[in-house]
Design a protein that fits this description.
The structure holds two protein chains of two kinds.
Chain A (H helix, E strand, L loop, with lengths): L1 E7 L2 H4 L6 H16 L3 E6 L7 E6 L2 E6 L9 E8 L3 H9 L8 E5 L8 H16 L9
Antiparallel strand pairs in A: 1-5, 1-6, 2-5, 3-4
Chain B lengths: L2 H25 L2 H22 L5 H23 L5 H16 L1 H19 L6 H11 L5 H8 L3 H18 L8 H23 L10 H17 L4 H15 L24 H16 L6 H14 L8 H14 L3 H15 L1 H8 L13 H12 L3 H14 L3 H13 L2
Classes of the chains: A alpha+beta, B mainly alpha.
Chain lengths: 141, 417
C-alpha cells in the first residue's frame, strides 16, 4: 500500500529559517535508509507559505490569497510517498525519522477500489465503450 | 492482534532480511540463521510488549539471536567433548567481534543482503523453491502469506522452503557475491526470480483474479532494494524499469468486475505517473552505464515506448518493432517472435503481422500458449476474416488458465459478428 507522510512546519520554518547542515545530513541518512529498503517512492520539502498562494472557492467565485498563511499549525512543510506492506510498517519507519518535536501524519493513499460506487460507474461506462470496439482490439505486452 | 504485537510484526518485517543475512554470515547456514531470527522474534514478542520497542530494534534482535547461537554452540560442545573446545570458542569470539564492529555494520549489511539474495536464488534450488525462499528471507513474508499469494496450501510452501534450505546446505553454497562469469549467470537467476514473482502478481497464471497486486509490490520492492545493492548492473535497472512501468498500469488494466483491460484500451490518465517517471528514470540509469543492452533493458525500452505515448494511437510502433528485432537477437524465443508479430501488425498492417505468426504454429514451445491464437484472432478480425478469427479466439479461451482472461477472450469471440 502507498502512504503519504506529511511533515508539518513550525514558526521557525515559516519564518524562512533553513535547516541546519547536520539536520539535513541526518535526514539524508534516513532517506537513504528508506531508499535502500525500497520504501521511498518520492519525497520533497516545501517552501514556507510566504512564497505560496492559496485559491479560495466559493460557488463560482475564486479568490487568490497570497502567503504567508496565518494558521501555521497544520501547514505542510514536506512530504514523502512510501510503499509499505501495512500502515504499521509505515509507523515503524516514521519512528526512526530524525525529528525532535511536532506531529507527522501518515495518510493511506486511495487505491481505485476504495472509491466504491462512483468509480465503478465511470469504469463501467468505459467498459461499455471497450466492448463496443472489441473487434479492433488485440493484446500486447 | 494487539497493538504491541502488530508493531513488533512490522518491526520484524523491516529488520528480518538484514537480520537473517547477518546471521548467515555468522553461523554459515541459511536454515539455522532463519531459526535464530525466529527465536529472536519470539523473544521480542515476550519482552517488548512490557519493555517497549527498543531504540535500535535491529541491533536488539541481532544480539539476541547471536547469544542464542552461542548458547547452542556451547551446548553442542558439551555433548561433544572430544571437540577442541578452546579453538572453537576462539573462532566464535572472533566471528562475533567482526560482526559486532558497529561502525562497519551498515556496509557489511548491504553486502550480506546481496549475498543472501544470490544464495536464495542459487540455480541448484528449483525455481519455485528460489521464489519461496527469496520472498521469505528477503521479502520478509511469512510462509502463510506466500502460500496465500500463490494460492497453494501452506504446507506446500513450507516444504519448498525446507527443501531449498537443505539443497543449499548439501551443495555447500558459499555465502558470497559471485564474481566473473559466474556472476552473470547467477545475477540472471536473481532477476528471473524477482520477475517471476512480479509476473505471478501481474498476470496471474491461475485462479480467479487477473491481478494480485501484493506480489507486484513485493517484487518491485526487491528490485528497488537490489538496484541500491548492485547499482552498476544495467540489467538490474532494466528489470526495475520494466516492473515500474508495468506496475504503473495496474489500476488501468483491471475493470470493475476484475476483468482485464488491454494496454491499448486503457485510460492512460489512470496510469500511476509516479511509477512511470520512476520507470523511465530507472531505464535512464541502465542506459547511462553504457553497456551492451540485455533483455531486461530492451524490454524496459519497449515498455517505455508505450509509456511515452499519451494516447494509444501515438505509439511509435516502428521503434517498438526495432526493439523487438534487438530482443530477438540477444534473447531469441518464440514468445518474443509473437510479440514482434503484434508490433509488426500495428506498424505495417495486420497481414504482415499474421504472416509472421504462421511459422509459430509449428513451434512446440507455443503449442498450449493461449496468446498465439489470441493474437491471430485479432489480426484475422482486422482482416475481416471473422469466422477464422472467432475460431482462434475460442481456441485461445480454451487454453487460457486464468478465469478472467478466459472470459475476456470469449467475450471477444462473441463480439465478432
Amino acid at each position: 500500500m502507498k502512504v503519504m507522510v506529511f511533515v508539518k512546519g513550525d514558526p521557525t520554518y515559516e519564518a524562512g529559517a533553513m535547516p541546519k547542515a547536520e539536520d539535513l545530513e541526518e535526514m539524508g541518512r534516513f532517506n537513504e535508509e528508506l531508499v535502500k529498503a525500497g520504501v521511498m517512492l518520492a519525497g520533497e520539502g516545501l517552501h514556507p507559505t510566504s512564497k505560496s498562494k492559496r485559491v479560495r472557492f466559493a460557488g463560482n467565485k475564486r479568490t487568490v490569497i497570497d502567503g504567508p498563511f496565518t494558521e501555521t499549525k497544520e501547514l505542510v512543510a514536506g512530504y514523502w510517498l512510501w510503499e509499505v506492506k501495512s500502515i504499521d510498517e509505515a509507523v515503524e519507519w516514521l519512528k526512526r525519522a530524525p525529528f525532535r518535536e511536532g506531529d507527522v501524519d501518515i495518510r493511506p493513499v486511495f487505491a481505485p477500489e476504495d472509491f466504491g460506487a462512483e468509480y465503478t460507474a465511470k469504469v463501467r461506462a468505459q467498459e461499455e465503450r471497450i466492448k463496443a470496439g472489441i473487434a479492433a482490439k488485440h493484446p500486447t505486452h | 492482534m494487539s497493538d504491541a504485537h502488530r508493531a513488533i510484526t512490522a518491526v520484524y518485517r523491516i529488520e528480518s532480511p538484514r537480520l537473517v543475512a547477518g546471521l548467515v554470515r555468522f553461523v554459515g547456514d541459511v536454515g539455522r540463521a532463519e531459526e535464530l531470527a525466529q527465536d529472536a522474534l519470539v523473544a521480542a514478542l515476550e519482552k517488548w510488549p512490557e519493555s517497549g520497542v527498543p531504540d535500535r530494534p535491529g541491533a536488539w534482535l541481532m544480539a539476541t539471536a547471536k547469544h542464542r547461537a552461542i548458547d547452542q554452540l556451547r551446548r553442542d560442545k558439551r555433548l561433544d567433548r572430544k571437540r577442541e573446545q578452546l579453538g572453537h570458542e576462539a573462532e566464535i569470539r572472533s566471528r562475533m567481534a567482526g560482526a559486532d564492529a558497529d561502525a562497519a555494520i551498515d556496509e557489511d549489511m548491504g553486502d550480506d543482503l546481496l549475498r543472501l539474495l544470490f544464495v536464495a536464488c542459487h540455480p541448484v534450488v528449483p525455481p519455485e523453491g528460489r521464489v519461496a525462499l527469496t520472498l521469505r528471507l528477503l521479502g520478509g513474508l511469512t510462509t502463510a502469506e506466500i502460500a496465500r499469494a500463490f494460492l497453494v496450501p501452506e504446507p506446500t510452501i513450507a516444504q519448498r522452503i525446507v527443501r531449498a534450505k537443505r539443497t543449499l546446505a548439501d551443495a555447500g553454497v558459499p555465502f558470497e557475491v559471485p564474481r566473473g562469469e559466474d556472476r552473470t549467470v547467477r545475477l540472471s537467476s536473481v532477476l528471473e526470480v524477482i520477475y517471476l514473482v512480479f509476473n505471478e502478481g501481474y498476470a496471474a497464471t491461475s485462479g480467479d483474479d487477473w491481478l494480485r497486486p501484493e506480489l507486484c509490490d513485493d517484487a518491485l520492492r526487491l528490485g528497488r532494494v537490489l538496484a541500491e545493492l548492485a547499482p552498476t548492473e544495467p540489467e538490474v535497472h532494466g528489470l526495475v524499469a520494466l516492473m515500474e512501468i508495468q506496475a504503473s498500469r495496474s489500476h488501468a488494466r483491471v475493470g470493475p468486475t476484475g476483468e482485464p483491460v488491454l494496454l491499448l484500451d486503457q485510460d492512460r490518465a489512470r496510469w500511476d505517473w509516479i511509477l512511470v517517471r520512476r520507470g523511465l528514470a530507472a531505464l535512464e540509469r541502465a542506459l547511462a552505464l553504457n553497456q551492451p543492452h540485455g533483455p531486461y533493458v530492451v524490454q524496459a525500452a519497449i515498455a517505455a515506448c508505450h509509456a511515452r505515448a499519451r494516447r494509444a494511437e501515438d505509439t511509435d510502433w516502428h521503434a517498438i518493432v526495432a526493439l523487438y528485432d534487438e530482443l530477438a537477437r540477444i534473447a531469441p524465443s518464440p514468445i518474443v517472435d509473437l510479440n514482434r508479430a503484434v508490433a509488426v501488425g500495428m506498424a505495417s498492417g495486420p497481414a504482415a503481422g499474421l504472416a509472421l505468426t504462421d511459422p509459430l504454429l509449428s513451434e512446440p514451445a507455443l503449442a498450449g500458449y493461449h496468446l498465439l491464437p489470441s493474437v491471430r484472432g485479432d489480426l484475422l478480425a482486422k482482416l475481416d476474416r471473422l469466422d477464422e478469427a472467432r475460431a482462434e479466439l475460442l481456441r485461445a479461451a480454451a487454453l487460457a488458465g486464468n478465469t478472467r482472461e478466459k472470459e475476456l477472450l470469449l467475450a471477444r469471440a462473441r463480439g465478432l459478428s
